Give the backbone structure.
Amino acid sequence: QVQLEESGGGLVQAGKSLRLSCKASGRISNINTMGWFRQAPGKQRELVASITGSGITNVAHSVKGRFTISRDNAKNTVSMQMNSLKPEDTAVYYCKVHSSWGQGTQVTVSS
């Protein structure tokens, strides 16, 4: 079982930036893809960005050019820099590794 500890998030104005981080611990051998999902009220959880062990990224069209995902394999962490935030980015953001989910961190963007 993989445990995930998220940090970052908060309340910011539109146009500002936030950085989310997620550290994996536990049975973390052979971690391949790490990702960030988000779920807004009344909506389904959706993939925001993912990154493989070799650094190949997949970024949702809605955040492309604004969000950047990265990882530190030595520290078993995945981070996501979120720039030019918009009110529609407001959601709970979840880290996912294998079948394990983080507890979620709230991101609220005010207009």
Q: What stands out?
A: The chain has a mean pLDDT of 95. The chain has no helices and eleven strands.
